Each structure stands twice: as C-alpha cells, then as structure tokens.
Amino acid sequence: MKKTFLFLGIVTLSLTACKTNFSGIEESNRTDSLAIQLSEDNAKNSLDYVGTYKGSFPCADCEAILTTIIINKNSYSKEIIYKGKSSKVLKETGKYSWNAVGNTITLLGSEVPNQYFVGENVLFQFDTEGKRIQGNLASKYQLSKIQTSDEIVLDQKEETKNDEVAKVDLKDSKWRLVKLNGKTIKKNKDNKREYGISFSDTGRFSVFVGCNNMMGSYNLKEEVSRIEFSKVASTMMACENMELEKEFAQVLETVDNYNFDGKTLKLNKARMAPLAEFEIIK
Questions:
Q1: In terms of residue numbers, what domain contains 83?
Q2: Which of 17, 59, 167, 279 has the largest count of CB atoms under 10 Å?
Q3: Which residue range or ranges hold the DUF306 domain (predicted)?
Q4: Which of these three, 111, 146, 181, is where a domain ends?
C-alpha cells in the first residue's frame, strides 16, 4: 500500500513540474514575440521611407531654403537652393545612419542641421543641436514625400527686385519690431513709442518693447554679417505684462548673425529662421 501511495505521489509531482515548465516556456515565447514586435515597430522597419521628400525651410538671409532629399536604401542625395539669393543648385550625396530606436536618420558628412525624424511620408528636420523643433515654427521644418508621378522640379528663378535699397548704416539706425520668434508684434495702442531697437555709432543699443528701457553694447563684424549683444541692462519699472520684454532680451543674448537690406533687419541664430524681424524707422 505504501509503495502505491509513493508511486502516485511521484506521478503527481512529475505532472505538476511538466505543467509549470510548459507554462514557463509558453510565457517566455509570448514575451519574446512581444519584444520582437516592439523592436520592429519603428520607421526603419515599418514605414516605406525610401523616396523623394521636398519642401522649403525658413532662411536667415534669403526668402527660403528650397530643399529636396532623396532617400535610397543605403544612400541619400540632397539639393538645396537659397531662393532670392542665388539660383545655384547645391548638391551633395552620401550615406546615412539610423539612431538606436530606428526613427531618426543622420545624413553623414552633411553640414548641420543634418538629422531628420522619419514619419509617415514626411521628414522632420531637427535643430543644430539635434533636437526636435517646437513652437510656432515647428511646422515650417518638414519635408513631404512626393509621389513618383509628381514633377520633381526645384524653383530656380530669382525674383528681380526693382525697389532701390535705401543706403542705411546699421551702426546709426532705428528699427521697428514686427516679428519675434515667428509671432507678429502689434503696437500697443496705449503707448505712442515704437517697439524696437536703436543702434548708435558708439557701439551701444537701446530697446523699448512696452515697459522698461533696455540697453547694452553690441559688436558687429560686417564682412561676415555677425553680431553680438552684451547682456541686457534695464530700468526697474514694474508693469502688468513684461513677457514680451523678457522674451526680447533673451533673443538678443541668443542671436549671432544678422541680415539687412536697408529696409528690413533680421536677427538670427545660425542659419535657422529669424528670431527677430524689424523694419526701418525713417
């Protein structure tokens, strides 16, 4: 009788062990399958990213940067035109690499910004630091994939401007602020003073955007259109809304180059979209 009970106990334990082992294998298989599924759920493996992408980016010293990028399986080609500045088509070719998660490509050997987030039928350009562009200008930094039936033609025509450019010395001029970080600036109806910036030929600047008088020094390198502002000093008046003032002060400490044609002035960071835009005050 004891042998019978012992035999039944061994059989029961064996069945339990087999069940547990089978369950563990099944769970392991499910986990492995999920991991494989997740690893494949990215642009590199899931999207039809090969093709031609076209669009235009904001430009610091021209009307727009017309851009076409052709992505092949292992290489890319890129063409850009600085519209309103030159009709020359700048071309480059090379290899590209994917990031670890398979959603961003880097055009190897290309001048920054050279990273693009790959979406469905779209490329989103990153900024010079390799970060996704946010805010009001985000939608302006994308290239759309075009169908093979669409005509791939870059606009190589330069518009001829007949208006004579006024001869203005930037070192002795006054400018009305019209845009800040892509947002149109409207004059405060309760204040007769213009929102803007003035430059003196002694290397000083002064700013007014609604509340305090701000000032500081600036340094120009006209041969390369570079500009550098000192940290902004300000009077200490308290006003209801000082956000514009703070934003403008931050922009002045960020910009490193400029573009002006005697009638308009743009302050820029690298070759990205203008951070501040002005028109001449006569």
A1: 51-146
A2: 59
A3: 169-279
A4: 146
